[in-house]
Amino acid sequence: MSNVLASLISSAGALSAYDQVLEVTQNNVANASTPGFVKQRQALLAMPFDPNMGMGGGVRTGEVENARSEYADQAVRRQNTLLGQAQQDVNGLSSLQSLFDISGNTGIPQGLNALFQGFSAWAQSPNDTIARQTVIERATDLAANFRTTATGLANAAQDAERQVSQTVDTVNNLVGELRGFNEQILRGARHDAGVDAAMHSTLEDLCQYADITTINQTDGTITVLMNGQTPLLLGDQQYKIGSRLASPDTPPPVYPNARPSVHITASDGSDVTAATTGGQLGSLLNLRNGILASYLGDATQPGDLNRLAKQFADRVNGVLTAGNASDGPPAQPGVALFSYGTTSDTNVAATMSVDQSVVKPDLLGPIDPGPPYVSNGVPLALSAMANPQKAADQIDGASYNEFFGDLAARTGSALDQANSRLQVAQPAVAQARNLRQQMSGVSLDEEASVLIQFQRAYEASSRLITVMYQLTEDTINMLQP
Amino acid sequence: MEDARAIAAISSEVERVCTLLKAPSPETLERCERILESAAASYAGLRPQRADRPAVEHLRSALGLAGQLLESAFQYHEQWRRRLWSSLAGYQPGGDPAVVVHPNRVSLRG
Prior knowledge:
Chain A has 481 residues and is an alpha+beta fold.
């Protein structure tokens, strides 16, 4: 009981002393811009600690300074997290961009253009075997282009999965190092400058990989949380995160055979993927579960590359099989050109092909039996798909080439934004480090004075930048080519 | 062509502002303000043509970066000021930090 009372008295005394410090500091801050004002200082001493003598100790010196120092550290870490995320975004998206050449010289756009030209040539010579063979060869090339793009994207997805796993390991290893520092602190190394420096350095490394929050505990240890809520380290107890591939159970997957998404799990097994948006880990999850899934599909969507492949193949096959290869009698119906795996709509682009052992030139049907009967109606209809007028020849209201352009633009636009963020993040980290350095050794009173000066200076520069930015924006709009 | 060179020179000045903003202090911010005032005055006197568009876009990009660096530094100090003020003077009923009054009274030393 006496120990409890001693603790309470100690706490009350410390609070009172702390209150005095704040009063003195407040007075200094209030007079920060008063000419000639001499700032005052309230010194605090650590109280003796001896429970047997009823002395409960108590120290409250430098609370605000510590809070400021921690604030500055957090600011550096926050900028590092943004930098890590932007760098990872640029790396991941740059590798994807090569799969989406929209110049029309390679890949799917080149394949589409070549096939449309092949249809046009066939329309001019509907019974020419060479023109029909050219159509088959170009369709084969286009199917190969779809497969190549799908394989490239699948490899990128696999690479992202591997990187997520590696990043999770790195996070766990770094948190393990921090746990070691906490253990040293609990064993008495609280004021060891070496431990403190190593801990801060490790935290700066860690925050590149994930969005990390730290809380300084009264015993000197740090608590580390990911995404502000998932515990990674509490005292000497580490909570490891993990990664796994899984499709959601609820709601039931629409495409159960789709490639599963990557999930991040907390140590208790709970899924923290949705909250993991920062740092390299957040970037990798966005690339794998967001951007790549939008192309290749997942449990809830077939993926736009597969939609493009399926709709194009089905439309071409539909027009061909509605036509006739010969008038007969009996009339010989045309054969389909493309085939693909039918087990899942998420696998169309990866399996699209032309079976040349089945599709022979003389089996391609140019005749639209009508009415009206048109001897080259089929290749005419197919070549019209290049600049579609009918809704049936479009995908989401666009031509097939335009739709592919939109897919490419998705990556291009995300890469542009990532590059812009990277351009800002690099100097912003330097800025946060400099601001932390500036704080070091400066008293709160001096800083309060500086803060007042800052407020005015920011307003002035901000107005000038806003006006100049608007001027340049107007100029660019006026100089539209 | 003259204007393109002038715009490039203004861009260089704005890039100098970006460099200064990496280590913002009241003194460097004052320098930034002077540089930006001069840059704004120079730009206002120009009549860029279509050929100058890349130079203007480069300038806009430099201004965007300067704006973001200014904003991040402002946020840094503003957030800290709010924490400091609330530590020193508590909170207002709405949750904002209480205002620390600056009476600007005259003090005599010595």
